[in-house]
Amino acid sequence: MDFKERIKKIAKHSKTENKLAQTENLSAKKIAVFKKQKLILSTFVALFLWLGIGLFLKNIALSLGLAVLFGGIIFFIMIQIPLIKNRVKARKIEAQLPLFLMKMVTEVRLGKNLISAIQDCCDEKNEVCDEFLCVLNDMKKGMSFYQALEKMNQRIESPSVKRACSHLNNINSQGEKNAFGLKKLAEELILKQRIESKEFSGKMVVYALIFVSVSAIVPAMFMSFILIGSYFMSIAFTPVQVLGISAVLFPAVDFGILLMIDSKTPLFLKE
Questions:
Q1: How many whole angstroms separate alpha carbon 267 and alpha carbon 189?
Q2: Where are the alpha helices (DSSP H) in the chain?
Q3: pLDDT tens digits for the chain (271 residues)?
Q4: 159 and 199, same domain (yes or no)
Q5: How many angstroms separate the Cα of 218 from the Cα of each of 209, 222, 223?
Q6: Domain that holds residue 253
Q7: 68, 219, 220, 229, 234 from 224: Cα distances, Å
């Protein structure tokens, strides 16, 4: 297949399909089946939404338009879910990679060959060990070390993983003397994590102030405002409204802030 034919073949697939093919190891036929299944599911959901919205709005055209809109959004989300999972997995692997590489460098410098060192380092149950076990399994199926690493690179979109694979290829082809580059990469990644940790510690002070204010100060001020307002400003809240705001709204806001803090926390601090 010449260069022009390859370009035409790639152009037939969308960017999303190419990413699905790489991250999920799906062929073009399997991708078509995957998209068809999600389209059928989103169509059924849209039909139920059309029925429910139609009964509520009493307007067939408007309810159909809303159902089609929501169905399209649901279809898009279901297509993106594998890609989102892959990005989360890549972040976890990046968080676990520095210590894994340092351990591997130690094993290599003790005199073990690279394959044995990788096998001995995969003694934990985490994402980075699972990926390198896949590399070893691919080699057992007949792939070369370089091909197995390239396959892992296609599954994981991470510059750190690509750099690590490049150093591992050098060690495999040229020997232990190139382990220094892998050690330097691991130290660089650890230093990057330390910097991120310090930055997060500074931000955590602000997050803590926001959480304390919303969870304690704001509810207390709200209750004071209700008591004073009911006497002097003719502001009236029903008991149900006060209960809903105190028991539902404020806890929901607190929960949202906790989720925000969790999303901002570096993954290596959660391990």
A1: 13
A2: 3-11, 15-23, 28-57, 60-109, 114-121, 127-140, 145-155, 159-174, 179-212, 218-232, 239-244, 250-264
A3: 443 444 344 444 445 555 555 555 554 566 677 777 777 888 888 888 788 877 777 777 888 888 888 888 888 888 878 778 888 888 889 899 999 999 998 888 888 888 888 898 888 888 899 999 999 999 999 888 989 998 888 888 888 899 998 888 888 887 766 678 888 988 999 999 999 999 998 899 999 999 998 888 888 888 888 777 666 666 667 778 778 888 888 889 999 999 998 888 888 777 6
A4: no
A5: 12, 6, 9
A6: 195-269
A7: 47, 9, 6, 8, 14
Q: 81 with 157, same domain?
A: no
Residues 148 and 117 in one domain: yes
Coil, strand or helix at 112: coil
Q: Which tokens go with 113?
A: 């060959």
Residue with tokens 């001995």: 120
The type of residue at 72 is G
70 three-class SS: helix
